[in-house]
Amino acid sequence: MQPVKHTMTSGQPPDVYFESMQLSRTITAIATLVTFVACKPAPQAGPPNPVKWVVKGTSAQSATDRSVKLRPGAKATVQIAAAVDTGWYIYSLTQKTGGPTPMSVTLAPSPPFQLAGKITAPVPIVVYDKEFGIDTERYQGAPSFTIPVIADSSFNTSSAALSLKVRFQACNATFCLPARTVTLETPIRMAAR
Questions:
Q1: pLDDT tens digits along 158-178
Q2: Would you state the pLDDT for residue 71?
Q3: CA-to-CA distance for 58 and 148, rounded, in angstroms?
Q4: In this predicted structure, what is the pLDDT of residue 172?
Q5: C-alpha span between 116 and 150 (Å, rounded)
Q6: Which residue would you say has higher pLDDT here, 10 or 25?
Q7: Beta-strand relationship, 89-91 and 144-151
Q8: How many other CB atoms are there within 10 angstroms of residue 95's CB atom?
Q9: Residue predicted with more confidence, 9 or 101
Q10: Does residue 125 surpass a pLDDT of 50?
Q11: What is the pLDDT of residues 176-192, one digit of tens each?
């Protein structure tokens, strides 16, 4: 924006000239302020989070008690679910190496908690990915997973918390987010032997 130049013309009283200059400066200041406010970038909300995880339930749960009841040395299952936003997907537990980060689940604390077998998962959608040059295995929508858990036979605490660490990579048709790990917790109550 170019500054406005005023020249005093003959016959114009000096006070009109100075009022005109002051009005011009005021208009310039207002225009600058409006431009600054209008062009101010929106605050950044952080990276998108297109996947929400929850613990759905367990095989050893009652309707009134949401904790997992587990005998030392005995198996129980924990179900988790993802809510994947429309247009997004995560890679499967069985995704081959040489491409995206496959989903994984680990338990903590370990010991006393350990995986007690293979995680049950939905059948993934297989899609050739030209960026990776391989077939990729994906989950979309609301996939659920059943995780077999066992507590060490020497575990004797009456209650504890089981942490499930889920590592995954989310992508859409345009880009992939870096792999991340979320921690889900569920209370554990040890049943009598």
A1: 777 889 999 999 999 999 999
A2: 78
A3: 10
A4: 95
A5: 5
A6: 25
A7: unpaired
A8: 21
A9: 101
A10: yes
A11: 999 999 999 988 877 76
Peptide bond into 112 cis (omega under 30): yes
Name the fold adopted by 51-190. Immunoglobulin-like (2.60.40)
Q: State yes or no: cis peptide before 111, omega within 30 of 0.
A: yes
- Here the tokens at position 136 are 């990729």
Question: Given the structure tokens 């909300």, which residue do they identify?
Answer: 45
Overall residue count recorded for the chain in this entry: 193
Which 8-state DSSP code applies to residue 73? T
Give the β-pairing of 180-190 and 68-70.
parallel
Cβ atoms of 94 and 124 within 8 Å: the answer is yes
Contacts (Cβ under 8 Å, ≥6 apart) of 55: 78, 79, 80, 164, 184, 185, 186
Give the other-Cβ count within 10 Å of 77's Cβ.
Answer: 19
In angstroms, rounded to a whole number, what is the distance separating the alpha carbons of residues 98 and 92? 14
pLDDT tens digits for range 46-62: 678 999 999 987 665 55
Q: Which residues contact 65 (CB under 8 A, 6 or more apart)?
A: 189
User: Do the beta carbons of residue 136 and residue 158 sit within 8 Å?
Assistant: no
Domain boundaries, the chain: 1-40, 51-190
Single-letter residue type at 36: F
**N- to C-terminal Cα separation, the chain:** 83
